[in-house]
Specification:
Blueprint (H helix, E strand, L loop, with lengths): L5 E6 L7 H14 L3 E5 L3 H6 L2 E4 L26 H13 L4 E6 L1 H14 L3 E5 L15 H22 L2 E6 L6 H10 L3 E3 L7 H14 L4 E6 L6 H12 L5 E5 L11 H19 L5 E6 L2 E6 H6 L6 H10 L2
Helix pairs in contact: 1-9, 5-6, 6-11
The structure holds adenosine-5'-diphosphate.
């Protein structure tokens, strides 16, 4: 196997708080191990356009606490074509980059897998997404921060919901995964969560809300995962409004504020551990794996598994929410 002297690092797809902490960790761990580092800007786009710059230790100073990504992120259509990936490979070689560390979600790791297969380039993936939807790691970089942002928002919504005795549908991100909605609901004391993993009948939901709302509660909050499978918060609000016009129903879509902000301690530590472990993997000759944490131990998950397997949501969490929201 060819010796690796220089690694390239990029962030791709949806941004997540903690990506900067991961960039810092990868860069510093690489330099510590005698490798040189090149930062690739705007995800795969930077590989295609050659937006690449040498990174020293100082380039990643004072970023561990910053949300977003100093490398920027983008979606790159060209990289999904063989022609685009050929240009990317040629640029990579011209820059002397021997291996790639890709920080991103499902799509970004799919790109890394395809590229690695096509050009025999060692690629290591770090799970960077607020959605927590990558199989094989207990949490992903950015998830904990987004969850805490949701709590902060829902706590505030609770104040106004209680004052006006309203029913709020709060839409949170997560794409087709319900981790943010379900755990956000448990942690904020919400009355219910509508998530794609478990179908929710609107009448059941209404029964449940009616009991809680009328019996003992003077506000109700339901967290809804944004997925097309749930139809989103607006969809549920419209249906409840139509069938029960006596309810004062409101919708809040939290949107992109969930992606921003300074990463929590959990995300900074996770990103630091995963970044260092990515370099360990490269030094050990591993390739085409996503680095994760399972039971507080570093694990290396083949791309295929991380991308293709669905990460299950524990039924126990659904039961906890149901029991505690009476
Ligand atoms: P995320 O990483 O947040 O899931 P996307 O799904 O938008 O984000 O993917 C990010 C980028 O990864 C895409 O813009 C594209 O450049 C690359 N990518 C995704 N899927 C593939 C694929 N099948 N082949 C090659 N590149 C891909």
């Amino acid at each position: 196997m060819a010796k690796i002297n220089c690694i390239g690092i990029l962030t791709s797809g949806g941004d997540a708080p903690g990506m900067n902490a991961a960039i810092r960790a990868v860069t510093r761990a690489a330099i510590y191990n005698g490798l040189s580092v090149k930062g690739i800007y705007r995800g795969y786009k930077g590989l295609v356009t050659g937006e690449i710059k040498e990174f020293k230790s100082q380039n990643v100073s004072n970023i561990i606490q910053q949300g977003g990504t100093i490398l920027k992120t983008a979606r790159c259509k060209e990289f999904t074509t063989p022609e685009g990936r050929k240009i990317a490979y040629d640029n990579m070689k011209a820059e002397g980059i021997d291996a790639l560390v890709v920080i991103g979600g499902d799509g970004s790791l799919t790109g890394a897998r395809v590229f690695a297969e096509e050009y025999d380039v060692p690629c290591i993936g770090l799970p960077g997404t607020i959605d927590n939807d990558l199989y094989g790691t207990d949490t992903t970089i950015g998830y904990d921060t987004a969850l805490n942002t949701i709590l902060d928002a829902v706590d505030k919504i609770r104040d106004t919901a209680t004052s006006h005795e309203r029913l709020f549908f709060v839409e949170v991100m997560g794409r087709d995964a319900g981790f943010l909605a379900l755990n956000g609901a448990i942690a904020s004391g919400a009355e219910a969560a509508i998530i794609p993993e478990f179908s929710t009948d609107v009448d059941q939901l209404e029964d449940f809300i009616k009991n809680g709302f009328r019996k003992s509660k003077n506000s109700s909050i339901v967290l809804v995962a944004e997925s097309e499978l749930t139809g989103g918060a607006m969809h549920y609000a419209e249906r409840v409004k139509k069938e029960y016009p006596e309810y004062d129903v409101r919708v809040t879509i939290l949107g992109h504020l969930q992606r921003g902000g300074s990463p929590t301690a959990h995300d900074r530590i996770l990103a630091s551990r995963l970044g260092a472990a990515a370099i360990d993997a490269i030094m050990d000759g591993q390739r085409n794996v996503m680095v994760g944490v399972h039971h507080d131990e570093i694990v290396y998950v083949p791309f295929n598994k991380a991308i293709k397997n669905d990460k299950p949501i524990k039924k126990e969490l659904v039961n906890v929410l149901r029991a505690l929201s009476i």
